[in-house]
């Protein structure tokens, strides 16, 4: 059963930075952490301490800010990673361990019993060092379901507070995600966190399915950054939870455009124009039928109010525009057109759009008017 509220654990500063070719400076990491906290993100995964002194210094700098968000670091379930994590002054450590047979055998060269023993030992060790523990089930989506339950039981018995279900290769669909998460929810009282990858384009959908099945926490990244095809996007997942399911996250969606631009610049990854929620074209309309409907009542073609996510509608002219859009655009520059005059403009506007691949500017519209109106007057 879905929660009435869900905790977002944003991992832009960990998994997001693991995007090939992305590297944030210490100043950029602090700016991103501040922006996420200001938006109301409850938890942040802020790095991998065992990477080295610079990474630990960056994590310590974020920890020293006194942000209202809880901070988590990531490590493997081994001694060096645990010791490094304990030196960073954060509340939570995610200790990751493979749980699928293919990774247990062919990555670790171990067996299932070794995994269970390791989980028990390192959860206890981390607690003794003063940290809350999330057990990260790497490749959980390919794990044997019965063995996965044994891992979760072992983690709970050892005192972990959370289990992270990682669809490491992005192989699930929403239906199988719901089934797997629901099975875990019925079997444990642990916090359950969904970590989805987007290899098949379903990270956001899978995350929502996990929430509906009872996940208490989810991982996101700004703009969907992450290894390979990325992770579930913060802006998409939160907006969907708010507007589809009325699930509370404590996040102010109006911050999304600002955070998205910040991360885009820091990562060197441009935001695609058609990127959900934050792309430049998302609330931009050209089609004559749509524009006419929006002018009459925004609810005709508005599923999410742009203002709810810090955006505004933009109506542009192009090949697919109609007379209503032309009249609306000219009214914006102080020229009132009749419907007949607007239709007289359409051919010129469409010709311009095809030739230049861009919408006409105010100066273009004024020029078209001066060129077309004498002919329209003669023809009338």
Q: Can you give a write-up of this model?
A:
This protein has 14 helices and ten strands. Helices cover 46% and strands 13% of the residues. The strands form two sheets. Strands 1-2-3-4-5-6-7-8 form an eight-stranded parallel barrel, surrounded by seven helices. The chain is of the alpha/beta class and 380 residues long. The chain has helices at 26-39, 53-63, 79-86, 101-106, 112-128, 145-158, 174-187, 203-212, 234-245, 256-267, 288-296, 323-332, 339-356, 362-379, and strands spanning 7-10, 43-45, 70-76, 92-98, 132-138, 162-167, 191-196, 217-220, 284-285, 314-315. The chain is elongated. Residues 376-380 have low confidence and may be disordered. The protein has two domains: 7-267, TIM Barrel (Alpha-Beta Barrel); 284-379, no CATH class. Helix 11 (288-296) packs across helix 12 (323-332) and helix 12 (323-332) packs across helix 13.
